[in-house]
Amino acid sequence: xxxxxxxxxxxxxxxxxxxxxxxxxxxxxxxMVDIEVxxxxxxxxxxxxxxxxxxxxDVSDPVQVRRVAGVAIERFGRIDAVVNNxxxxxxxxxxxxxxxxxxxxxxxxxNGPFLMVQETARLMAETGGGAVxxxxxxxxxxxxxxxxxxxxxxxxxxxxxxxxxxxxxxIGVRVNLIAPGPVDTAMAKxxxxxxxxxxxxxxxxxxxxxxxxxxxxxxxxxxxxxxSYITGQTLAVDGGFDAAGIGLP
Length: 249
Ligand code: NAD
What we know:
Blueprint: E1 5-9, H1 14-25, E2 29-34, H2 37-47, E3 52-56, H3 62-76, E4 81-84, H4 99-126, E5 130-135, H5 148-168, E6 173-180, H6 186-191, H7 194-203, H8 212-223, E7 234-237, H9 241-244
Parallel strand pairs: 1-2, 1-4, 2-3, 4-5, 5-6, 6-7
Helix pairs in contact: 1-8, 3-4, 4-5
The structure holds nicotinamide-adenine-dinucleotide.
């Protein structure tokens, strides 16, 4: 049987590494993409799998993104799924957020998924279609303090997901977004103060942070044939936070 191939961005650690592990466990091949070269190579070595290949790339750079798509085809001959997971967070009040911070967050969180899908959609279509999962956030579902750049990038990514799904359906490419609630990764450790952590526990019906593997399970489902009629959707994987309708801490 043909081995399927996924490109996973932000794969050096956190949710992206968990997604990579999940694809490998399901027998897929993975092109692991990250801007942090040392961490990426360490993750690749640790996985110790002939089915995983690391590619250093800044997802906001069109030239580097095009190179990644080329490497996937050269090495593995096809692309069946793209997981746009690479992201950065700046948690600051609107009036303290610099233009450079705003621009960089949008460049990585929004331009990255735009570029990656432009470069890979036709390649996926050539081998029968494929699936894209964009990683958004519950911060894209609710406005809140501290998240002017991050929340706006994730809300825009939700709309980009609908645009991509609408235009790419006819070439057999499905596109969905997962909006995780808080997950205790390096990113959360950096931006979640003790006060934010305590408030999240109260606001989430399941009363806990999510696990990286719980996000990876949902990503894999949406990339699999089990989700063959699902496109253009947002799936919150958030312990019920969105359903409870409480404001973000
Ligand atoms: P993380 O910081 O642990 O991992 C993100 C990875 O992306 C890192 O390895 C980083 O080097 C890489 N990256 C950053 N900029 C890049 C670029 N320009 N090009 C390529 N790679 C780049 O974060 P995480 O918590 O695993 O987050 C993964 C995704 O999940 C992000 O999109 C994030 O916004 C989203 N998310 C996280 C949480 C959470 O609480 N952790 C909640 C909701 C959504």
